[in-house]
Amino acid sequence: MRNAAFAVAVGSMALFAAGCNQAGKPGDKPAADAKAATEAKGAEVKAIGGMKTEKEQDSYLIGMDMGRSLELLKDDLDLAVLQKAMQANIKGEKPLLSEEEARQIRERLQNKVRTKQMEKMVAMAKTNQEEGDKFLAANGKKPGVVTTASGLQYQIVSEGKGAKPKASDTVRVHYKGALLDGKTFDSSYDRNEPAVFPLGAVVPGWQEGIALMPVGSKFKLWIPSKLGYGEQGTPGGPIGPNATLVFDVELLDIVKPNAQGAESAAMGTQPPQQK
After folding, report:
1. Which helix (H) or strand (E) is 221 found in, with range?
2. In a domain, 25, yes or no
3. Within a domain: 75
4. Signal sequence: where (predicted)?
5. Is residue 88 part of a domain?
6. pLDDT digit string (tens) for 18-68?
7. Is 181 exposed, middle or buried (0-12, 13-18, 19+ CB in 10 A)?
8. Secondary structure class of 110 (helix, strand, coil)
9. Which domain does 46 fall in, by range?
């Protein structure tokens, strides 16, 4: 697990550092430009949120990033002490903690962060499971929605005339994946590039759902978490634990074996893969 509490503003600062470390390369502007930029840091710029200078805006951005990274520990922090430590460090003052004391506190805090992350995941898993079960129970009663023995739900938007793929086939599809709140987390339509993959390589809900589709069909799939990413979700990704997934899928073709090599070379982002 990532220890977000110790990544304060690292992302923003890394970007700033990457840009600042390019000096001296062929084609760079004279150092005078850098000097001018430094002198202008307190100058007025287009006001944003009531902040009229770069210094104010830059400071607020870093503080905003820090606040987000420390959200998990918001109830465990003394902001006055936090500010005191930051000011001392920026001024080059001697810290109140020795290296050994800092190490011991850091280890304790890391354990606390891990515990809080686990508690958050457990709570999210419980909420997602309850919301998913409630949604599927109601959705299954709607006209045109079919619930299979496994719990997969599907609706035929339009039915093609082609063959249905087998588990051993490679297929070409267009799709859009969303969460129950409607937020899209992946879409081959947005990339303007169909996905090509072995049907046996994707999560069970996809394997079952696409195997029901004749080539040329468009289906809507509702995949319960047990047929998707289960209790783990996609760590660090958009799919939470026990999340129910909603897919609009269009089966374009079953890829013939002699064409799979060429198709694989053109494959883009993949739909839900088996864990």
Report:
1. strand 218-223
2. yes
3. yes
4. 1-23
5. yes
6. 444 444 444 455 555 555 555 555 556 888 988 989 989 999 999 899 888
7. exposed
8. helix
9. 4-96
